[in-house]
Design goal:
- There is one protein chain.
- By secondary structure, the chain is α+β, with helices and mostly antiparallel strands.
- It has a single domain, classed as Inorganic Pyrophosphatase, CATH 3.90.80.10.
- About 20% of the residues lie in helices and about 30% in strands.
- The strands form two sheets. The chain has a five-stranded mixed β-barrel with strand order 1-4-5-8-6. A two-stranded antiparallel sheet has the order 2-3.
- A hairpin with a 2-residue loop joins strand 6 and strand 7.
- The longest helix has 19 residues.
- The radius of gyration is 15 Å and the shape is globular.
- The two termini are about 20 Å apart.
């Protein structure tokens, strides 16, 4: 059985084009996580706050970030997909975040196969309202979980997102002894 974290490349042309493995769905409160030991998507918890994911959310394959998890990605979609769906996407921004004292940044990406997002190339192309909604979600989604503290730390452009993706790919290789060909 294919392990979507270990067996799938980070993207067809990472960091310019990436694969996002969807865990959580736009409009839902269920927090799914990919469990590489199953392998499959499992229900981790239901969000304690009355908020829902602003878009499909998941991780980049063969990535590892400073928080000790695969690198997070939020893919802007009109309609939710499904847990385990692989979306080919372009990074357009990076949201900086601290989650319980650990750097837990998020790549913001758009699907390469949806013409509604062809005009979105970089942070300045995202509507201010959408940026505010994403920021508000991540600022508040753990508010009712005991002992959890999250702080959003601002936004950076596509170049920063691509640098962070490269960093996550390097960390994966360093930690899992898997040099890329």
């Amino acid at each position: 059985m294919t392990n979507l974290w270990e067996d799938l490349e980070t993207g067809p042309d990472a960091p310019d084009e990436i694969y996002a493995v969807v865990e959580c769905l736009k409009g839902e409160r269920n927090k799914y996580e990919y469990d590489k030991d199953v392998p499959g998507v499992v229900l981790d918890r239901v969000l304690h706050s009355n908020v829902h994911y602003p878009s499909d959310y998941g991780f980049l394959p063969r990535s590892y970030y400073d928080d000790g998890d695969p690198f997070d990605v939020l893919v802007l979609v009109e309609d939710q997909t499904f847990p385990g769906c692989i979306i080919e996407a372009r990074p357009v921004a990076l949201m900086k975040m601290d989650d319980d004292g650990e750097q837990d940044d998020k790549v913001i990406a758009v699907p390469t196969e949806d013409p509604r997002y062809d005009h979105i190339e970089d942070l300045q192309d995202l509507p201010d309202q959408l940026i505010d909604e994403i920021d508000e979600f991540f600022q508040t989604y753990k508010n009712l979980e005991a002992g959890k503290e999250v702080e959003t730390l601002g936004w950076e452009d596509k170049a920063a997102a691509k640098d962070a993706i490269e960093h996550s790919m390097e960390l994966y290789d360093e930690n899992f002894d898997s040099p890329r060909n």
